[in-house]
Amino acid sequence: MERRDLLLSFMLLATTATITGCETPDSEANSLATRLENAMYTETVEKWRAALVAGDIDTVVSYLSPDVHLYSPLKATVIGRQEVDHGFVATIRSAFPPDLRFTGHLSGTAEDRDGNPKETHVLPFRSGPDYGGVLTLQFDNQGRIDAVAVYSTLRALTAAIGPILDQAVIALQSPR
């Protein structure tokens, strides 16, 4: 069911309950609210994913929260929002082979960096016969992406993006 349909169902349920004077069972209202929220996250993920594949860096960056954190297997420390700007994202995207494709989409709840449960989406990706991995995305309360983690084999990562990521890390260490 699309986000619009879920929203209409939720509004209809609330309006019917108000007109008839009946109370909406909490479980039914919560179920619809949860489905609407999940649809919102899924829509965001799909748009973000399409923008990343297309190389639309402005759109990719627009979905990031002001407090986003990037976790990379090639950098020992977390990369914060002040470092994750248009140029950084463009450099990282250029590191992925041009035939990058996402092969699935899983969603659920996982702990965030502070140990709190957060909406989490896992996106497996492939590129060519030897390169693959997963991205995980977590969201803030406004539906913006506030954590991105990249997981892949070290061999695949270093072969595909090692040289470009080295440039990005050097750029991060340089005074701005």
Low-confidence stretches: 1-24
Instruction: Please trace the helix and strand order, writing H or E for each element.
Output: HHHEEHEEEEEH
Radius of gyration: 19 Å
**Count of runs of 4 or more consecutive helical residues:** 5
Percent of sequence in beta strands: 25-35%
Please write the CATH class name: Alpha Beta
Overall residue-averaged pLDDT value: 74
Strand elements, count: 7
Structural class: alpha+beta
CATH-scheme architecture: Roll
CATH topology: Nuclear Transport Factor 2, Chain: A
Helix share of residues? 40-55%
* Main sheet overview: 7 strands, mixed
Taken together, the total number of domains comes to 1
Distance between the termini: 47 Å
Instruction: Estimate the global geometry from the Cα principal axes.
Output: globular
What does this structure look like?
By secondary structure, this protein is α+β, with helices and mostly antiparallel strands. The longest helix is centred in the N-terminal third of the chain and has 29 residues, at 26-54. It is globular, with a radius of gyration of 19 Å. A hairpin with a 5-residue loop joins strand 4 (106-111) and strand 5 (117-127). It has helices at residues 3-20, 26-54, 57-62, 86-95, 154-173; strands at 64-71, 79-80, 101-102, 106-111, 117-127, 131-139, 145-152. It has a single domain, classed as Nuclear Transport Factor 2, Chain: A, CATH 3.10.450.50. Strands 1, 2, 3, 4, 5, 6 and 7 form a 7-stranded mixed sheet that branches. The termini are far apart.
